[in-house]
Each structure stands twice: as structure tokens, then as C-alpha cells.
Design brief:
about 30% strand, about 130 residues, 6-stranded mixed β-sheet, alpha/beta, 6 strands, 4 helices, Transcription Regulator spoIIAA
């Protein structure tokens, strides 16, 4: 699979899989609230720029808890991303138990049913390809 690198920081890398039309975000390390907000705003920008409807949101290497910002992701960012065209959102759970709990909490808050959690990147990618 060919990925085009779009954006990189010390906690987030955003790539575009042009073959399968999937935006891929790869998060890492402990995340401050402003990191989460800035990261997801950049994801929105590249979803719109690439007219992309699928997001593979890889949290595998995220450490620690970020649940105090999960309501922002679910109730502010996600509706705006959906309005901009996001149709399928696959989240890969972190190895960190606390980060995993934060991701689970966020997924439960999103009521549209377009987001789904996965244990492995390959499963998330397969689901998105089938959509």
C-alpha cells in the first residue's frame, strides 16, 4: 500500500492511502488536551483536502489517559468531521489500558455508529476497505 505523508509532529503522523482512499492517523506517546485538539483539527483539514470519507485512527502507541477530552472529540469534532464527509472511522486501540479506556469512552459517546474499535491495524484497514 502506498501512503503519502501529509503531516508529522512528535505525537502524530497523518498519511493518505490514495489507492484505498483512507486517511491514516498514527498517534504516539502521552497526549495533552491541546495535542488531541490540534491533531484532530489537522485530521479534519486533510479529510476535506483529500475529499476522503474513511479514517484509520491508530492509537496503538498512545500512552496514558486522555478521557477528559473525549467529550470534545465525540460531541464537537466528530459531528463536524461527519458534516465534512467522514463516513467510516476505524479506531485501533492502544496497548496502554488507560488510553484504551479513553478510546472506548469516546466511541460509546459517538451515537452515529460510524466509528468502530479494533485490536489490530490490519483488521481496521480491512473493514475500511470493505466499506
Amino acid at each position: 500500500m502506498r501512503h503519502l505523508n501529509l503531516f508529522t509532529t512528535n505525537f502524530l503522523k497523518i498519511e493518505y492511502n490514495a489507492v484505498d482512499d483512507i486517511l491514516v492517523s498514527q498517534w504516539s506517546g502521552p497526549l495533552a488536551n491541546e495535542d488531541v485538539i490540534n491533531g484532530y483539527e489537522n485530521i479534519s483539514f486533510f479529510l476535506k483536502k483529500n475529499v476522503c470519507h474513511k479514517l484509520l485512527d491508530n492509537h496503538l502507541e498512545v500512552q496514558g489517559i486522555w478521557s477528559d477530552i473525549s467529550d470534545w472529540v465525540a460531541y464537537d469534532w466528530h459531528p463536524r468531521a461527519e458534516a465534512a464527509g467522514l463516513r467510516y472511522h476505524a479506531c485501533v486501540y492502544a496497548k496502554s489500558v488507560f488510553s484504551r479506556l479513553s478510546t472506548d469512552q469516546t466511541i460509546r459517546m459517538i451515537k452515529t455508529g460510524i466509528v468502530k474499535g479494533f485490536e489490530e491495524v490490519s483488521s481496521a484497514e480491512s473493514w475500511l476497505k470493505d466499506m
